[in-house]
Amino acid sequence: MAILAIKTYPEEVLKGKTEPVTTFDNQLHKLIDDMIETMYAAPGVGLAANQVGISKQLIVIDASARDETTSLIVLVNPEIVCAEGSEDSEEGCLSLPEYTTVIKRSKMVKVKGLDREGDPLEIESDGFLAKVLQHELDHLNGMLLIDRIGRIKRQFFNKRFARENALTRK
Ligand code: NI
Fold it and tell me: Which CATH class is domain 12-169?
């Protein structure tokens, strides 16, 4: 296993739509294991494949620190099949270091996908895991937290990002 480099905004691979996984081979299993190790090392509660530069529909999640009904989840080609309610909560992202913001998302989601062997998997949550699932599925659609905030908050983010970038380039 290996810890992979996490891509951060504004890298292009975070913006594109990802491709479905079609082959469940050793190469995929190695990527999954490396993503799990990378997520725990970060530390984070979820990681999408395009965050490590691979534009595939694959996410790993471990929300057990805040939701003890769940454990490690590997989801391939996931899609939301049902969503209900709405709720605000604070989120951060490994691809937006040191940034957090309040995001409105569905309270409950049901997600269908495949496991690491390609077998069908269905996950339903109305807790913290529901927010993590929606966050990671956003990644697979090329969306970051900053694509879900209002215009004023986005301008604030852009200014802060420009200022920090100017500082680190000196
Ligand atoms: Ni993220």
Answer: alpha beta
